[in-house]
Amino acid sequence: MPKLADEINLKFVQLYREEECLWNASIPSYKDKQMRDSSLEKIRDILNKDGIEMSIKEIKNKIKNLRATYCQELTKIEKSERSGAGTAEVYKPKIIWFEEMHNFIKKVPMKRKTSNNQDSPNNNKDDNSASNSQSLEPPVAENLSEKTVEMSQPASEMSSIQDKTSKFISPGSWIPAITQQETNISSVSESLSTGPSTSFTGIKKGVKSLKDKKICSLRSEISRLRKKGTNLKAKLNNAEKLSKNPLFYKFTKDMTRPARLFTQMQVFQTSKKPKGRRYTTDEKILCLSMYKKSPKCYGVLYKFFTLSSAKAMKRLLAKIKIKSSINTILFEQIKKTVADKDISDRLCSLIFDEMAITPQIHYNTQKDVLQGFDEEGKKFANHVLVFMIKGIKENFKQPIAYYFTNCLNTYELKKK
């Protein structure tokens, strides 16, 4: 954010004063979010016309910084008055916009740091309550001048007053006052112990209850979900704009479905980070078909194009539950595929063969079982028996069943 000069800060304060809904908490429009946003936009437009480029967020931060500086200057004034300095030695702010801001902010109650009641033991309960109530509001100019005159009395007058009061107050007269103070302290402690739990928790400002922590976590979760929804909405709008673009439609209308999916992956996923890419099921199936043709070739294509990783495709395959023996899902899919074909194209032959595999035991964490045994579960599987259909007229092959075996012979095969 650019650093503004004092003259520009003064103009900013003047614009801030005109928008009363931004600083006056006593009016109904202070709680109207739309009106506050329109006031901030109005300030932004005026500053932009003067050549000062500021966003809404920067304007909010500027208002926050100005109010913080204003409160710091008020604190310096109060400290200089408490120190007993004369009128000429009271701190006067050198910021040119302080008086402009003080003229309208002083009328609005602000939360200020309260003074400690133990600083002056001679003050009674009424004086303490009065001082606390006055400290909630910023000092008005007239009050500042009166306090300055009172604190600037000569030291000789103060000493004369002390001599006069010492004649009427004896050392023994302090004992009832101390006893009364102890009685007040004990009554306060009793009220704290017998009062509601909320009054005691208000004293411990640094300790958060479980309910407060739960509320904070829920608020952060709501904020995260809102940001996620905003991002998804923006992505959806961009996708709709691109899909409605006549050039994109003209470019992809004559493509095959795999070519269209491949083009969409390059257009929508390339601008994202590798860990932030999310592929649809059709896109993963396309990548899986390419991977099955040649894993080495897929590895080369993965370096130059935006494609799904091998781990993501393996996770997709893990979701498909295929067990040994006859697979009914494959038969249903074959039935749908050959429904529109001629009878001659459906002719096929059944082929089966046995392949050797390395005996090993594998623990399936998802199913919580040990795998690597034959179908009876008594021996280690060292072969797999595969049944396949092969087209007679058309060239197609499709495995339909498999079994894990341990050196299966002809007699056992006929027995099965």
UniProtKB/TrEMBL annotation:
Region (Disordered): 112-163
TM regions (residue ranges): none
Residue span(s) of domain MADF: 11-110
Residue ranges, compositional bias (Low complexity): 115-135
SMART domains to which the protein is assigned, alphabetical: MADF
Pfam family membership, one: MADF_DNA_bdg
Bias (Polar residues): 150-163
Entry-linked PANTHER family: MADF DOMAIN-CONTAINING PROTEIN-RELATED
Protein name as annotated: MADF domain-containing protein
Source species: Euphydryas editha (Edith's checkerspot)
Top-level taxonomy: Eukaryota, Metazoa, Ecdysozoa, Arthropoda, Hexapoda
